[in-house]
């Protein structure tokens, strides 16, 4: 495996011409490569955990709105079980922007919000595992970016870009829905929009903190200061047996969690 300097990669590739489907696949390959190298190179693993954007977002596709962090998986629970993986959920935290001061501006502000998040979004999408989400925080994942999986992921991403602004707008108008969205966002999105949130994602929705310098509408400029998105991925621990690493990596790449492609970050 060639250890490329991320700065050199940035210079060589014009990301503006990247097709979204290709970006989706590229994220997958970068993640699998990072997982493999982290198993054999402790120094690299430390650098990856300290600065994941440098190695996983080498074309700056996430944008400034997304805060990407990695956490070490717990070998006692987040592990290779000889023929399958058990992995915790990816953690995603979204914030509800503050509605404009005057209700008359809500329609225009929401149209601008959707336009901005479409421009800021990246191809982080996925499909739920067979059987749906379930209630456990740990589950056997079964996601793939090959063939149908890529199309399902892409379709889900496109839907999400429009569902989230609708959820924000409804939360502005409906206090009961907002309370449900803050307490159980996955169920709230399903009930209101028939949208099945990607499996393997622990979604949290919060209000923008009072006095925060983001999440507000600037009527003069006709633009939002978008609130940050927190995206936390789990770096899987290597199999206990070194002889099983190749098998485990192959299973992870082909039918394991397709991190970090579980959400269109907007």
Automatic annotation (TrEMBL):
Q: What is this protein called?
A: Uncharacterized protein
Among InterPro entries, the record links this protein to: CN_Hdrase_a/SCN_Hdrase_g_sf, RNP_Burkhold
- Recorded GO MF terms: catalytic activity; transition metal ion binding
């Amino acid at each position: 495996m060639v250890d490329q300097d991320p700065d050199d990669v940035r210079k060589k590739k014009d990301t503006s011409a990247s097709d979204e489907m290709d970006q989706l696949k590229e994220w997958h390959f970068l993640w699998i490569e990072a997982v493999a190298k982290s198993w054999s190179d402790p120094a690299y693993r430390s650098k990856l955990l300290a600065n994941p954007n440098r190695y996983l977002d080498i074309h700056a596709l996430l944008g400034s709105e997304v805060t990407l962090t990695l956490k070490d998986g717990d070998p006692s629970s987040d592990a290779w079980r000889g023929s399958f993986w058990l992995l915790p959920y990816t953690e995603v935290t979204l914030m509800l922007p503050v509605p404009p001061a005057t209700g008359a501006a809500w329609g225009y502000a929401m149209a601008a919000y959707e336009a901005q998040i479409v421009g800021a979004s990246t191809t982080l999408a996925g499909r739920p595992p067979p059987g749906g989400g379930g209630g456990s925080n740990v589950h056997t994942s079964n996601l793939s970016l090959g063939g149908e999986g890529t199309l399902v992921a892409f379709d889900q991403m496109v839907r999400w870009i429009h569902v989230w602004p609708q959820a924000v707008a409804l939360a502005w108008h409906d206090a009961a829905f907002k309370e449900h969205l803050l307490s159980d966002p996955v169920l709230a999105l399903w009930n209101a929009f028939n949208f099945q949130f990607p499996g393997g994602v622990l979604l949290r929705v919060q209000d923008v903190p009072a006095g925060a310098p983001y999440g507000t509408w600037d009527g003069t400029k006709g633009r939002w200061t978008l609130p940050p998105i927190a995206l936390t991925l789990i770096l899987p621990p290597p199999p206990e047996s070194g002889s099983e690493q190749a098998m485990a990596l192959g299973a992870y790449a082909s039918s394991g969690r397709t991190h970090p492609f579980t959400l269109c970050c907007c």
